[in-house]
Design brief:
- By secondary structure, the protein is α/β, with parallel strands linked by helices.
- The chain contains twelve helices and 30 strands.
- The protein has an eight-stranded parallel β-barrel with strand order 11-12-15-18-19-20-21-22. Strands 3, 4, 7, 8, 9 and 10 form a six-stranded antiparallel β-sheet that branches.
- α5 (about 310-325) runs parallel beside α8 and α11 runs parallel beside α12.
- The relative contact order is 0.08.
């Protein structure tokens, strides 16, 4: 095994981790769904150690010990386990691990071996069938690939080697998120280092008034075409963009500018890659159900975790704590939640029938309880941490607290709202129904509103700006795009742009197509960028956008004939109320009467039709002295010249 060029001799300040013995999880399988730490053996030895089983990275893997490095791996069915450690002369030495029979954990404390040297290592396992396997550490903090042999090796890393500049960062209350794929964000630099990416991102996020970035998976994955959604090691940093310290630098740097950092977390499915994955680790499917109809996603070519097994739950919950504890991540989006909630997700009819016969339901109650525990455990340790679910089935209470019967997420992707908007834009005006654009507000959930994402723009699909019926390919598409973007910011939730949306990039996305940043030199894209900046600035400034509770948004008027939608965002005080008028129609309306939530002199504080945003600059005014209410609202205002394809935001002024 060869050394890692550039990673050796890194100066670091070491922190001494407590030396743990090999005692590990509780009972191998349990139907009880509470936290597995309660199931540790009741021996005096275990009682003395008081291990936190929701932080298994503290005592599994390669951790600094009092005299060197402690290696530990859970492989209860293995016949023997050694660890092969690199030496300075590019050879390796073998160290035999001993087994704790009660817990199935193999361990060895190798004296004189310092994790700060970032040495490479690998486990050699003689599995239950007598077959010799060379496997990477399931708890590896870093994995690299030898350029000559193509072999992946685990790398020891000192968690205290990075010195943080920021302390006690708290995510902004009013989130404005940009989803980013590190591989394709910077033109011509697919393997950009996290440090350079940080310096590239901050100006973009500031120019678009975004205060949070959601990174597509940054954990190790062997195949770039998987986009990171088939992780081979969920504790290891994607080596293509640098070391763990490089990723910490990115997070630290963004925090200095008030920008929160989220990333996609994959606890719903796992890679089948043999060398860096978990399948057949000790000759059995430790982490996954043995039966293929329960343990595999055939459409995705991935494994499904066994959420009924305590060791697996601890492993996954630990990954949820590892990233905020050691990398100060501010939140994560759990990918594929729908596939976790239903055992028959993407199954053949024969398999669906089998699942119903076995369980009497298609719901995976083990996964449901796991998701609840994941949210409870992570937020117990990190109260400001934000969790987001990708869920599309309409499962009730995704963003309700666990104590109220929910799953405990803070937000869920507004996938239904996104589909409604895309269908709306693709339909002819006479077939559009504005009610669909506000329907999600009837749900008691908190949504992240978006129209483009990595999924919606990939596999030959286009960004929404190129799907607008009657406007695609013309300058009108920018006008409509401004209305759609305002809708995202105006709804009761958090808006999210996909990378490139801030400059109205028109190209779809895949792992080889980067953002067309050169577009911002052209007038329509430059003006759209100013529009996004100002809209985000207004979102931050206005208190009403900060309220996400039920009742903080009201639908004032739905006019399908004229294609005009009016909503109100309700503040804590009536003086903070906002009225947002979204005209999806292609006609300027000379006079237009709308209901308003309270009396006062309503004036325009934001106009997407302004010429400096690329609009027509129609002169518009508001007469708020008209009498006679409408749509159950006692007061009204009259808009003089409501521009086509435009958004007006009104507020009562002194």
């Amino acid at each position: 095994m060869k050394k890692i060029s550039g990673y050796k001799h890194i100066q670091s300040s070491l922190s001494i981790l407590i030396l743990f013995s090999a005692t590990f999880f509780g009972e191998v399988v349990s139907a009880n769904l509470t936290c597995a730490s309660q199931f540790a053996p009741k021996s005096e030895k275990t009682k003395e150690l008081k291990k936190d089983y929701t932080r298994v990275y503290k005592f599994l893997g390669a951790n600094k010990s009092q005299n060197g490095t402690m290696f530990s791996i859970w492989a209860p069915n293995a016949k023997s386990v050694d660890v092969l450690v690199e030496k300075n002369d590019s050879t390796f030495e073998k160290h035999v691990l001993t087994k704790d029979e009660a817990q199935g954990v193999w361990s060895a404390d190798v004296k004189g071996l310092d994790t700060a040297t970032n040495f490479e290592y690998k486990f050699r396992i003689v599995d239950a069938h007598g077959k010799t396997q060379f496997r990477n550490d399931p708890l590896a903090r870093f994995i690299v690939r030898d350029k000559d042999s193509g072999i992946w090796n685990s790398v020891a890393w000192d968690p205290a080697s990075y010195v943080w500049k920021t302390k006690n960062f708290v995510p902004p209350k009013k989130l404005r998120i940009m989803e980013v794929n590190p591989r394709t964000r910077v033109p011509g630099k697919p393997d950009i280092n996290f440090r350079e990416l940080a310096h590239h991102l901050v100006p973009i996020l500031k120019e678009s008034s975004n205060n949070a970035v959601s990174l597509m998976p940054i954990t190790h994955h062997n195949v770039v075409e998987s986009w990171g959604y088939q992780p081979g090691a969920i504790f290891a940093v994607n080596y293509r963009h640098g070391t763990p310290d490089d990723l910490k630098y990115l997070i630290d740097y963004l925090h200095q500018y008030g920008i929160a950092v989220f990333f996609d977390q994959n606890v719903g499915h796992a890679s089948k890659d043999w060398d860096t994955g978990l399948g057949g680790l000790d000759g059995t499917q430790l982490y996954f159900p043995e039966a293929a109809h329960l343990g595999e996603h055939r459409d995705w070519g991935t494994y499904i975790y066994n959420y009924a097994r305590n060791e697996v739950k601890d492993f996954l919950i630990s990954s949820g704590k590892y990233w905020p504890e050691e990398f100060r991540i501010d939140g994560f989006r759990v990918d594929g939640v729908t596939s976790m909630l239903y055992r028959d997700y993407s199954r053949s009819q024969e398999e669906k029938d089998l699942i119903w016969r076995e369980f009497g339901t298609n719901k995976n109650h083990d996964a449901v309880e796991f998701l609840k525990n994941l949210n409870l455990e992570v937020k117990k340790s990190f109260p400001n941490f934000i969790t987001i679910a990708e869920e599309s089935s309409g499962w009730p209470g995704v963003t309700k607290p666990v104590k109220d019967g929910g799953l405990g997420f803070d937000y869920m992707w507004g996938m239904g709202a996104m589909h409604h908007m895309r269908q709306f834009l693709g339909a002819a005006p006479e077939h559009r129904n504005l009610f669909e654009l506000v329907a999600p507000d009837a749900w008691s959930e908190k949504f992240i509103y978006y129209v483009n994402s990595h999924d919606e723009t990939a596999h030959g699909k286009r960004r929404f700006i190129e799907q607008i019926n009657g406007a695609s390919g013309s300058s009108k598409k920018f006008d409509v795009a401004r209305v759609v973007t305002t809708w995202m910011y105006a709804m009761r939730g958090a808006p999210m742009l996909f990378q490139g949306d801030e400059i109205a990039d028109v190209r779809g996305w895949n792992h080889n197509l980067d953002v067309q940043e050169h577009l911002k030199q052209f007038d329509p894209h430059k003006k759209f960028q100013k529009f996004v900046h100002d809209l985000g600035f207004l979102h931050e400034k206005e208190p009403a956008f900060g309220r996400l509770d039920e009742g903080s948004m009201k639908v004032l008027n739905v006019d399908n004939k004229n294609q005009v939608l009016a909503i109100a965002r309700i503040g804590e005080n009536s003086k903070d109320n906002l009225v947002i008028i979204l005209n999806f129609g292609d006609q300027t309306i000379p006079t237009y009467k709308i209901p308003v939530p309270n009396k006062g002199k309503w004036q325009i504080i934001f106009d997407s039709d302004a010429k400096f945003y690329g609009g027509n600059g129609v002169i518009t005014s508001v007469n708020s002295k008209s009498s006679g209410g409408m749509n159950l609202f006692p007061d009204t205002a009259m808009i003089n010249n409501l521009p086509e394809f435009s958004t007006l935001i009104l507020k009562v002024t002194e």
